[in-house]
Write a structure and sequence with these properties.
The complex is a heterodimer of chains A (369) and B (86). Chain A has 369 residues and is mainly beta. Chain A is 5% helix and 54% strand. The longest helix of chain A is centred in the N-terminal third of the chain and has 6 residues. Chain B is globular and about 30 Å long. Helix content of chain B is 15%, strand content 41%. In chain B, a hairpin with an 8-residue loop joins β1 and β2. Classes of the chains: A mainly beta (369), B alpha/beta (86).
């Protein structure tokens, strides 16, 4: 494990900007992540709008309601929006949150059952409009033709009110905001998964999450899993990207993972494995995300997936001779976040690939055992 | 806190708890392994963590199965200590 810890990582990539045609405006990208809560696996909320404010004006950063499962992100950052906004220095952000149409939905692990199950309850924001100032001395500055980033960290753990240790459903929204640049770590997009639509000579088009079409540029620094390259990608494939936002709204990919060419995938947390030792033949998992499986395995459900025919095991963006040694069918365990790629045919999902994904943990540490 | 790489090294591990599913799977606290490429934010590496009391923190990484114990462990790419009250 220590050897792996010493080598884990994804190579860097350069960053290029392109100019905008407007003279008094710049580009703004919005990224979202969460501070994970101990037992919460789903935190579906709808953000009706996001506006930026200063003493003299208010501008829209996100104007179309956007449904986001912040718990699914598990500490990863996704791209929530990209907009052109007037240049200026903005000192606060106002979020308008949806309470009824639809209501927030909270899904949490119930450890009183064996195997663990998932319970859901409707939530309710204690306030639907919240204004959060940027940290003192660090406003969001949008310059002419510049690229600025708004980072949103929805603190799921602190937002959920509890009574006697139980989640009540009342959400007191605790949101941290920061102005970020595309090139810094907090500005990087670490979770952008979707369908590849078309290919170019040094880029491809992708239908990302939240209905967001996006151009993905690649360069000589872009890393791929397996023996893949731009030339081996095909339309319809499902890919996952780590990258940085460019001024024209495209992403420059640092890493591209081909999950499946079979046009169906699931993502979620492993709740239990069967058997618990030796090669695993099936997993019980909370499905937090899917593409192409909704007819047979919908999102926000607990499903048992038969993995006995899976022969390909990946570790996201860690691809070398060690990969199969450290992650294979004997290395699945409850608590992991995995992607499963496969096919849907005749009303059933047949998995072909399991990919281990990064996730975050919020906790207090205890001095060594 | 266990550091295996000598003075100034971040090669080692610490333990976390309170993630419901991981603690259930591990039967208690679970180990978070770090290496020299692990990014520590708001803290001076493993040694800083050892002397920091019990700060709230977020560790990001991959969950692997310890083949000896059968329990989950985390290999961290990033450890971020949260500001008081965060």
């Amino acid at each position: 494990m220590l050897v792996l810890a010493a080598t884990l990582g994804c190579g860097g990539a350069s960053h290029s900007n392109q100019s905008l045609s407007q003279n008094t405006a710049g580009s703004l990208f919005v990224t979202g992540e969460d501070a994970p809560a101990s037992s919460v696996v789903g935190f579906n909320v709808t953000i009706d709008s996001i506006t930026l404010n200063n003493s003299s004006s208010t501008v829209s950063a996100v104007s179309t309601p956007e449904a986001v499962d912040f718990a699914r992100l598990m500490g990863l950052r996704t791209l929530l929006g990209f907009n052109t906004i007037p240049q200026g220095t903005y000192t606060s952000v106002t979020f308008t949150l949806e309470n009824t149409n639809p209501a927030p939905v909270i899904s949490y692990v119930d450890l009183t059952t064996n195997p663990p199950s998932v319970q859901t309850l409707n939530g309710s924001f204690s306030q639907t409009t919240v204004t959060i100032p940027f940290p003192s001395g660090a406003p969001l500055v949008v310059s002419n033709n510049g690229l600025a980033g708004l980072h949103i960290d929805f603190d799921v753990d602190d937002s959920l009110l509890t009574s006697g240790g139980q989640i009540t459903g009342v959400i007191n929204p605790v949101i941290n905001v920061a102005a970020v640049s595309a090139s810094e770590e907090l500005g990087e997009i670490s979770d952008f998964t979707g369908n590849l639509v078309s290919l170019g000579s040094s880029s491809f088009q992708m239908q990302g999450p939240y209905g967001m079409p996006r151009t993905i540029d690649v360069d000589s620094n872009t890393q791929y899993n397996g023996s893949n390259s731009l030339g081996t990608l095909t339309p319809g494939a499902i890919v996952s990207i780590i990258g940085i936002v460019q001024a024209d709204g495209s992403l420059l990919a640092k890493c591209v993972e081909l999950i499946t060419t079979d046009k169906a995938f699931l993502s979620g947390r492993v709740l239990a494995v069967n058997p618990t030792s030796g090669p695993v033949t099936s997993v019980s998992m909370w499905v937090g995300e899917e593409l192409g499986t909704s007819g047979v395995i919908p999102v926000d459900t607990v499903e048992t997936i038969n993995l006995s025919a899976v022969s390909t095991y990946d570790v996201c963006f860690f691809d070398n001779f060690l990969t199969n040694q450290i992650f294979n069918n004997t290395a699945l365990v409850a608590g992991q976040r995995i992607f499963i790629g496969g096919t849907v045919s005749a009303g059933s999902f047949t998995p072909h690939l399991v990919s281990l994904r990064a996730r975050e943990f919020l906790a207090r540490w205890s001095p060594a055992a | 806190m266990t550091v295996t790489g000598g003075s100034g090294s971040n090669l080692g591990y610490f333990q976390m708890q309170n993630d419901a599913l991981m603690s259930y799977s591990a039967g208690g606290a679970f180990a978070v392994y770090t290496g020299n490429p692990t990014v520590f934010e708001n803290i001076d590496g493993l040694s800083g963590l050892a002397s920091a009391g019990t700060p709230n923190l977020i560790a990001r990484g991959l969950v692997f199965k310890d083949q000896t114990t059968g329990k989950p462990v985390v290999v961290a790419g990033r450890v971020r200590v949260l500001a008081p009250g965060q």
